[in-house]
Amino acid sequence: MEVFQVFDRPASQLFYSVAGRFLFVESNDPELRNLIVELFAGWQLTPVPEPHRSPDIRISFSCGETPHEVRGDLNHFEVADGGKCYTDGADFYLVLGNAVIYLQNGAPVTVDVSLSDLPVARDPMLARATSFAVCAGLRRFGLFDLHSAGVVDPHDGKGVLIVGPSRSGKSTLAVQLASAGWSYLSDDEVLLSLVDDAVEARGFRSFFAVSTGDLFKHCFEPDTVFVARRTSNVLPGLILFTRLNNQSESRLSKLTQTETMMRLIRACPWATYDSAVASANLEVLSALARQAIGFDLAAGRDLLVPRFASELLSRQN
Predict the structure, then answer these.
(1) Which among 135, 105, 102 has a CA at the least distance from the CA of 18?
(2) Spatial distance between the Cα atoms of 149 and 169, rounded to a whole number of angstroms
(3) Cα(227)–Cα(223) distance, rounded to whole angstroms?
(4) Are the CB atoms for 299 and 162 separated by under 8 Å?
(5) Around 297, how many Cα atoms within 13 Å sit in the side-chain half-sphere?
(6) Are residues 149 and 218 in the same domain?
C-alpha cells in the first residue's frame, strides 16, 4: 500500500481513513515512524494526502521516554496475552510488555503509545500495541473489531464470518474458499458496524498468514494469488465458529441465536472490557446474532479437498 505524506507537515505525521473516519498518526522518532508505516501497510486503511477536516482519532507513538504513569486509583484486570488494563470507566491504560497505551475520550479521541525502547522490525509486541491503539479508537466511532476471517459466497453474495482463535483453521478455510472463487475481506480480523439497522463487516488485515505446520506462518498478498478479488464490505449471513478436530471428516452443527451470541461475546472480549463503548458493542453483536445463522464447525481434513468447503457452506446459506 502506497503511503502519502502530508508535505506541509513533518515527515513523521500521516493521515489514514477507514469507513469515513480519519486517523492522524505521528511519531517523535523517524525509525519508529518507519516501523509504524510498515505495519499500517498491512491493514486496510487508506492513506489520505490532504484531509478536508480534523481527524477523529489521533495516535501518537514515542520511544525512549518515561511512559505515562498509571494512576493508582483505577480498576484493573488482566487481558489476553499477558496485558493488564487500568480504567475509570471512560479513559484507560493498557500495559502490554514494554508498551503503555493510554486512551482519552474526546474530540478527537487521543491514543498515546509509549515504548521503553525502539522495537526491532516485525516485533509482534509493536504489532499488538499498534493494532490495539487503532481498534480502540475505532470502537469509539461504531467500528468494532472481531477476530474472524470474512469471505463472500459467489452464489448469493452473502457474507460468511469464520470466527476462532489463532491456529483454529480460519486462514486455511479462507484460502480454500478464495481458491474456489469466493471473494474475501480478511483472513484474520474484521470490523463490524451497524449500517441502516444491518450489521456490515469490512476487512482489517490485508495480507493472509497461513500456518505451515510449525511455529511459523506463510504470509502473502491474496490479490496476487486468487482469481477472486477483495470485497470492501458485506452483510454477514453465516457465522462459523471453527476449531480443528484432527479427524478426516468435518462436523457442522447449527447453533441457536443465544448460543451464537454467547460465542460472539467470547470471541470479542473488548465488548465487555471496554466499558465506555460496551453497550454499543454488544448491540452490534446482538444484531449480528439475529441477522446471521451460527454454526459450530469441527474442521476435519476433508476441508482441504478442493471445492469441498465451498460446496459444504453453500448448502447452508
Answers:
(1) 135
(2) 10
(3) 8
(4) no
(5) 26
(6) yes
Q: What is the DSSP letter of 304?
A: G
Kindly calculate the radius of gyration of the chain based on its CA atoms and give it in whole angstroms. 20
In this structure, what C-alpha cell is assigned to residue 186?
480478511
For residue 172, give every residue at least 6 positions away whose Cβ sits within 8 Å of its Cβ, in sequence order, or none.
210, 211, 303, 304
Looking up residue 150, the CATH number of its domain turns out to be 3.40.50
- The DSSP code for 89 is S
Residues of the domain holding 281: 145-314
pLDDT at res. 216: 67
Decide if 186 contacts 149 (C-beta within 8 A): yes
3-state DSSP assignment of residue 52: coil
d(CA 206, CA 187): 8
pTM of the complete model: 0.91
Half-sphere exposure at residue 36, Cβ-oriented, CA atoms within 13 angstroms: 28
Total domains in the fold of the chain: 2
- Splitting the chain (317 residues) into consecutive groups of 10 residues, what average pLDDT does each group show? 40 84 92 92 89 90 81 85 86 91 94 91 89 95 96 93 90 94 95 96 92 74 91 96 93 97 95 92 98 96 92 82
